[in-house]
Design brief:
The structure holds 2 protein chains of 2 kinds. Chain A is mainly α. Chain A has helices at about 5-35, 55-60, 60-95, 100-105, 115-125, 130-140, 150-180, 185-190, 195-205, 210-225, 230-235, 245-255, 260-285. Chain A has one domain (about 20-110, about 165-285): MetI-like (MetI-like fold). Chain A has 13 helices and no strands. The radius of gyration of chain A is 24 Å and the shape is globular. Chain B has 2 domains: about 15-75, no CATH class; about 85-290, Orthogonal Bundle (MetI-like fold), CATH 1.10.3720.10. Chain B has 16 helices and no strands. In chain B, helix 13 (about 210-225) runs antiparallel to helix 16. Chain B starts with a helix and ends with a helix. Classes of the chains: A mainly alpha, B mainly alpha.
Chain lengths: ~290, ~300
Amino acid sequence: MFRREAATPYLFLIPAMLLILVWRYIPIIAGLRESFYSNGLSLTGAKQFVGLDNYRYLFDDPTYWESVRVTLKFNAIVNPLQVGCSLLLALLINQAVPGIRFFRTLLLLPIAISINVAAIAWGLALDSNYGVVNGILKMLSLPTQPFFRDADQAMPTLIGVVTWIGVPYWALFFLAGLQGIPKEVLEAARIDGASRFQAFRQIIVPLLSRTTTFVLVATTVANFTMFAPPYLLTNGGPSGATNLIMFDAWKRGFTYGDLGGSAASITLFLAVLMIVVALEFLITRPRHD
Amino acid sequence: MTDRLPAATPTGPSFAQRLAKIRWTAIPIYVALILLAIIVLLPLEWIMASSFTTTETVFKNVLPFSFRALLPEEFTLDAYREIFDSGFGRAILNTLGVAIVTVIGCLVVGITAGFAFARFEFRFKGFFWVLVLLSLMVPYEATVIPSYSMVNDIGWTNTWQALIVPALANGTVIFLFRQFFAEIPQELLDAARSDGASWPRAMVGVVIPLSLPVIVTSSVLVFLSQWNSFFWPMLVAPDQDFRMVQVAVSMIGVSQQTTNWDLMFASSTIAAVVPLLLVLPLQRFYISSLVSSGVKG
C-alpha cells in the first residue's frame, strides 16, 4: 500500500464518487422530496409543499391498491419460479454429455436480448389472431388462446415471457456455482452410497446457498421494477391485470402529469422492496446447526 | 477427400466415436435440451425469418401453421428498407456512439476508482466502498423517474449528456476493476514506479496492459446495457435526433397495428442480432464477468 502521496487516491476517486452520489443517491432523496410537493400544475407553475397529500391521494385510489396487489402476486410467483427454473437449467447444462457446449451456448442466447425486444417478439408470437403459437395450437387441433387479450390469461402469459428472458441469465450464476463445487466432494458422496437426489439435497443445495440468495434477491429487484412488458404489450390491462407498480407510477407521472403521486408511489415501493429483500436475506441465510 | 477430415483433428475422437460414447442414460438429458432449445429458438427464429418476408406471407404461413413460417419465403428486404427510410439507421448510429463513449468513460472512472480502492490506504475508504456496494443494490429503474426530474431541472432533456453521464455511475465496473487490481503483485507496481514514473504513467504503462480481460468484460457489459437500455432514453431523449435503438423499436412496436408487423419483425431482429453477435464470441468473458460481479457482490 502507498501512503506518501496523500492526494492521489482522492483524485482517483473523485469522478466515481461524484457520479455515484449524484446519479444513484441524490435521485432517491429527490424522489422522497418530490413526494411531499404538488405536481407543479398550479397556475403559477410553482411546486408547493403539500405534506402527505400525495400519499393520502394514492391510498384513496383503488387503482393503486389493485396495482400493488398485481405486483405482489406477480412477484410471489415469478421469483421462486425463476430461481427454481434457473437452478434446474444450470444443472442440465452442467451435465457432462457430448455436445453440451453447443446446447449451453444455444440455451444462454436470451441473455444478450433486451427485455423489450423479448416482449415485442413474444407479443407477436402470442398474438391472439396471427401469432405463431396459436398457429401451432390450431395445427395440433387445440383451441387457440387469447393470451394477453384476456384478463385471466394475461398475468400467467406475462410470467411466462419474463421467465423466458430471465431464466438463462440467472442460470449463469448457478452454473458458475456448480462448477465451483469440487468434483471430489460429489465423488465421495457417491462412494458412500448417496443417491443423486441425496447428493443434490445434502451437498449441492447447501454449497449453492450464497448463489441462491444472490439470485433470489437479484430476481426480486429485477421483477419488482419490471416496466417494459406492460408498457409495450398490455398497457397494464386487460382491466388492470398486468398493471405492475413501475408502469403504474410511470403512468401517474407521465400520462396524468402527477409527478408528486408518482414520486410517492416510488418512495413507498423502494421501502417495501428493501423490506422484501431484507426478509429474503434472513430466510435464505445458511443455518448453522 | 471427406474421409481424410478426421485426420485434420487428430486430438479429438471422430463424430461417430463420440456418438457411440453417448450412454443411454443421457437420452432424457438430450430430450430436455432439445425441448428447451425449441422454446428458446422458436420466437427468435420466427421473428428473424418473418423480417425477410411480407406481413401477408407471415399470416398465410401461421394460419394454418406451416413450417415455411420458419423460413423467409418470398424473400424481401422491404421492411428493412422502410425502417431505415424512417430513421432507424440514425437510431443505430446514435446508440453506437452513446455506447462507445459510455464504455470509454466507464473504463476511465472504473480503472481510477478501482485502483484507489485496491491499492491505497486513505481515510473514509471503508465508507466510500460501502457507498459503491450499496449503489449496486439500489435498482436503477426505481430511480429513473426522480432522475428524470433532475435531468429536466438542469435542462438536459434531449441531449447526449443525459444519455451518457448517468450511465457512468456504474458500480459494477468499479467493483470488477477493484477485484482485479487487488490481485496484481506488489513487486510489479514497485518496479513500475521505481524509475520515478507518476501514477498515471505507471497505470498506462503497467496496470492497464495487465487488465485487458477486465477491460473486455466491462466493455461488453457497459455496451450491452446501453444498447439494451430503454426506459431511461425513452424519458430523457425521445427526440428523433437522439433516439436510441430500443426506443425506436418500441415506437414501431407500441403502435401494434396488424399492418406494420414486418417493421416490428425487422427492427426487433436488428435490436437482437447486434448484442448476439457481440456476446457469442465473447460469451465466456461475459459470463465470467457477470458471475464474478454477482456472486461476490
